[in-house]
Design a protein that fits this description.
By secondary structure, the protein is mainly α. The chain contains 2 helices and no strands. α1 packs across α2. The model has no long low-confidence stretch (mean pLDDT 85).
Length: 167
């Protein structure tokens, strides 16, 4: 152990010189560099914290935008559904109007056809009456072989036809 102490005492000036040199170096480094190193570290920490804050703010903004877009999409879908229902109702209404218009036109056409048929029937009856009168006059002339005046013939035949129609 004596030898270790002897060696320690022999190396003590070197150790003290090294410790003193390190202390001076540390003090000079602290005075010259420590503040700037701490400032760089603080600036870097502040920048990193700022980036984290930006990321957090952007994340919140993205979530808010996503919620807003989801809400808007839902509103647009509801509005589209509403418009679709309105258009369907409008289409049905138009179809009903067209159908009703077609029915009205068909009823009008049926009435026109009935009137035309009635007029044609009246014309046909009149022609038939005239033909019956003519044929009756001709037959009567043959039967009696004497000729009555035309007015008298018509009166007799007309009376005959009316008697037939009355039965």
């Amino acid at each position: 152990m004596g030898e270790l102490l002897n060696m320690f005492l022999k190396e003590l000036p070197k150790i003290l010189t090294t410790v003193l040199a390190f202390g001076i170096f540390f003090w000079v480094a602290k005075k010259l560099f420590w503040a700037s190193i701490l400032q760089v570290i603080e600036n870097r920490q502040a920048r990193i914290q700022g980036e984290f804050d930006k990321v957090t703010a952007l994340r919140k903004e993205v979530e808010d935008l996503k919620a807003d877009y989801t809400k808007r999409i839902a509103e647009i879908e509801r509005e589209a559904q509403s418009r679709k229902q309105q258009e369907i109702a409008h289409g049905r209404k138009v179809a009903e109007e067209i159908i009703e218009q077609a029915r009205a036109e068909a009823r009008g056409e049926i009435e026109r056809v009935k009137q035309t048929v009635a007029i044609e029937m009246d014309k046909a009856r009149a022609q038939l009456r005239e033909e019956v009168i003519r044929m009756t006059v001709a037959a009567t002339e043959r039967i009696i072989r004497e000729r009555l005046d035309d007015a008298k013939h018509r009166q007799l035949i007309s009376q005959f036809v009316e008697d037939l129609a009355a039965r």
